[in-house]
Amino acid sequence: MGGMGGLSGEHGTMGRLPPEFAAIMRPELSSLLLEIYTEIRRTIPEYGPVLAGPYGRSIQLAVEQNLVTFVDKLTSPTAPSAERRDKMCRRLGRYEAYEGRSLDCLQAAIRLGARLGLRRAQKVGRRYNLSPAVLLTFADALFGYVEELVSVAREGYLEAKAELEGGQDILRRRLLQLILAGGTVAHASLAELSDQTGWPLPDEVTLVAVSPDARPERGTLSGDVLADLDGAEPHFLIPGPVDADRRTVLEAAPDGIRLAVGPTVARGEAAQSLRWARQTLGLVESGVLEERPVTFSENHLITLWLQSDAALLDQLAKRQLAPLSDLTSNQRERLVETLEAWLATRGNAVRMAELLHLHPQTVRYRLRGLDRAFGDLLNDWDHRFATEVVLRALHLRERSALPPPRSAAANGGTSPRSPRPL
What we know:
Blueprint: H1 7-15, H2 20-25, H3 29-43, H4 47-52, H5 56-75, H6 82-98, H7 104-128, H8 132-165, H9 168-181, H10 187-197, E1 204-210, E2 226-228, E3 235-239, H11 244-251, E4 259-266, H12 270-285, E5 294-296, H13 301-306, H14 310-320, H15 329-345, H16 349-356, H17 360-374, H18 381-397, H19 406-410
Parallel strand pairs: 4-5
Antiparallel strand pairs: 1-3, 1-4, 2-3
């Protein structure tokens, strides 16, 4: 990259700083960040609404990361932190381009932060009686670092401007569509669009589904992300897996934006990743999964499987729990509760009594009721497994899904409440 030419010089400058300098600067970062935000709002009016808006937290995260990276380099000048820093800065530059601003405001904000950082270092230096030579060395390292930040941000800015002016967004959206089409598209077509857009085809991809209620702004996504945010079901593609840096950025999404991240798959299976991501988002929106800004499908694969076909689950529940259909709601509820405990303990009456908070004799009485209802069915492994799956799925759905008693159904009655978890 053009902005990396001074890196070796920066390392050399930092290597001349005493190692304890980072230790005395690190406790200053929190209040220094607040000072920088306050001063940017005061002196750069264009950024007041930005920092106070939905993407303020993402921008603050980038500023914080750059400061922390710099202080870390004071301790270990050769620490491999440049890549993470560059991603943040390039994203800031892209954001400015997509927002229609010049790069002047971002450059001014970065340099303002550097001046405040130097002023804080001088204040700390006086407190610890640091020599002028140490502070001068710090200043050289700081302003060399800042020029690199500006250079990388400029690269991101120019990259996004070229995309906007050259219609790259349209081509990239078409490339995303072809990837999602999977094996029905010739590799030559993918390769041609890849060359036109300058987007190298990855072996693995991760798809992210976005709730249409609130969509991220295109400029906040990395340049290597393919996105379709305008359709009825917005989504975007991340090349490769979601690493720690991408996870941090996703989780810093503004309030109101909900994302579901599908599993990382081979490029030819991209549509599957998106399908699972959308199913995960649907489970969040229906309340089956806990609502949070970002949900990862890979953490809920069993739930996705159990909730993949609601109508089929109803049919399976009707079949597996048919022996209870002639009972009253209260009788059914008690026996379902007993059945769950029986499956969890494999029929150990003492353990069942502990789970149900009942006397063992009461449990044995209920077990006789189960035996009358199911007979030898629960001794059949396939039937027992299917019943356990049904009860787990009904619990996840968190609504009444048991088939109603025949007498209640005939008279327009209601189903009993769904069973408690196993």
